[in-house]
Specification:
469 residues, Rossmann fold, 2 domains, 6-stranded parallel sheet, binds uridine-5'-diphosphate
């Protein structure tokens, strides 16, 4: 724990406004407060309303942690209506003035900002306050991206489906061009100034733990020359049921109904299905997924999220699907936000069908549960390789097409592929070895955040460095 005798280091946390980036940053700020820092979370009114209860509980337990609301101007509709599913390109630049004024009046020792506030680096750097970047990824995916950008192996293949090797990585990792972000395929930089802002920062803070990807943490630090503190898994900071059940958003299902349904199932028998906070699947894809799940005969709990609202006029489920799976107790459908941590940690859950968003992936590792990987966009195809080929705790459904959250997909993963993957993961045999490895990693993750663990030490090291800077 960082020295108790000196005044607390004051750190501002400036999370992005959407789910997959906002949630871990809130945990990060609580984690630093638990190490003696004075954490201030800069947030917008909608998000403050979501997190204030858990922050209040932290305050009652003696942590120095506060929410500071930055008020967007009344005409910035996007930031007044945003929720957990805010897309990565949401423009937050109307917060520039309130942020600037606050920094000048309060002068924190450091600010940790989300990379999606693309305008913020210049504003902060002009104040001279040390700036650390959080971008929500792991080291493995950052190494993959670095190799792709510097060696361009995808330009040397004839077609989008021809596999190519990522040269120089510690493991043999292959991808196809169709699995890469469109911007990378076309040699266009991601909009804004995120890359430059990382280069000029004090360093990066990463939600992972050393024992999960040691070769890639070392590679990232050595080859890219970046200063990085590996401080996760941050989700482990949520220890009580309230924090877990309310994390991110109020659940669309009552906690007790969800747990009662899981209690009625056998250990390791339920597949949890979720594609994150943002993802919208077409009605055709949902239909195929529903058919495959039902045909597998395995139990499942499916967080369909907002999908059905978007596609409300189209047929998403086969006739009678919901009634059949409910009355046979094969499945539970959650239309809206699911209490993901509670579900993953339940002993009945034996598998997770996931889009490989980094938070979901790491939360699954922490629960010691093997995965069916179904990457869709962002860096999810890299994460799939980590899960299936490096850690060997999952199998792929066979998703081949990278598409942004708002793009129409050309390829549908058919019901046969879904059924086969579910039967394999939720059957006996090969999964036992995966489950054993997943449980070992979960134990390593817990050790990393305990006193003396690698992540625990990195949090203290960062606090010391800020203090001495
Ligand atoms: N999440 C949740 N309930 C839901 C959907 C998502 O609690 O119904 C949480 C999940 O636990 C994770 C985050 O939202 O912490 C999603 O982040 P991830 O990186 O997995 O995916 P993204 O939403 O960024 O695509």
């Amino acid at each position: 724990m960082a020295s108790q005798s000196r005044p607390p280091v004051q750190i501002f946390f400036f999370p992005f406004v959407g789910g997959g980036h906002l949630i871990p940053m809130i945990d990060l700020s609580r984690l630093f407060a638990s190490h003696g820092a004075a954490s201030v979370i800069l947030t917008i009114p909608n998000d403050a309303a979501v997190f204030h209860k858990s922050i209040q509980r932290d305050q009652e337990s003696g942590l120095r942690i506060h929410l500071h609301t930055l008020n967007p101007p009344p005409d910035s509709a996007a930031l007044h209506t945003t929720d957990m599913s805010a897309p990565p390109l949401t423009d937050t630049s109307c917060l520039q003035e309130p942020l600037h004024d606050l920094l000048l009046s309060r002068r924190p020792d450091c600010i940790i900002i989300d990379t999606f506030h693309r305008w913020a680096a210049e504003v902060i750097d002009a104040t001279g306050i040390p700036r650390i970047v959080f971008n929500g990824n792991c080291c493995f995916s950052r190494c993959c991206h670095h190799i792709l950008e510097t060696h361009l192996p995808h330009n040397k293949v004839e077609s989008d489906s021809e596999p190519f090797l990522l040269p120089g990585l510690p493991d043999k990792i292959e991808l196809c061009r169709s699995q890469l972000p469109i911007s990378l395929r076309n040699g266009i930089e991601f909009p804004g100034k995120s890359k430059k802002s990382e280069q000029n920062s004090f360093g990066m803070v990463i939600n992972s733990f050393y024992a999960l990807e040691p070769a890639y943490v070392d590679y990232y630090r050595n080859v890219t020359g970046k200063k990085a503190w590996i401080v996760g898994p941050v989700s482990l900071y949520n220890r009580n049921q309230e924090d877990k059940a309310e994390r991110g958003q109020k659940s669309a299902i009552d906690k007790h109904s969800c747990l009662n349904w899981l209690d009625s199932q056998k250990p390791n028998s339920v597949l949890y299905v979720s594609f994150g906070s943002l993802v919208r699947m077409s009605s055709v894809q949902i239909y195929e997924l529903a058919c495959g799940l039902e045909a597998s005969g395995k139990s499942f709990i499916w967080a369909v999220g907002k999908i059905l609202e978007i596609e409300e006029n189209k047929k998403c489920f086969p006739d009678g699907f919901e009634e059949r799976i409910w009355s046979s107790k094969q499945g539970l459908i959650i239309k809206g936000w699911a209490p993901q941590l509670l579900i993953l940690e339940h002993e009945s859950v034996g598998g997770f069908m996931t889009h490989c968003g980094w938070n979901s992936t790491l939360e699954c590792v922490c629960a010691g549960v093997p995965m069916i990987t179904w990457p869709l966009s962002a860096e999810q195809f890299y994460n799939e390789k980590l899960v299936t080929e490096v850690l060997k705790i999952g199998l792929s459904v066979g998703s081949e097409e990278w598409a942004s959250w708002n793009m129409e997909r050309k390829v549908v993963v058919g019901r046969e592929k879904v059924e086969a993957a579910v039967r394999r993961l939720m059957g006996d045999g090969e999964v036992e070895e995966m489950r054993r490895r997943a449980k070992d990693l979960a134990a390593e993750g817990r050790r990393a955040v305990e006193v003396g663990g690698s992540s625990f030490s990195d949090v203290d090291a960062l606090i010391d460095e800020i203090f001495n800077s």
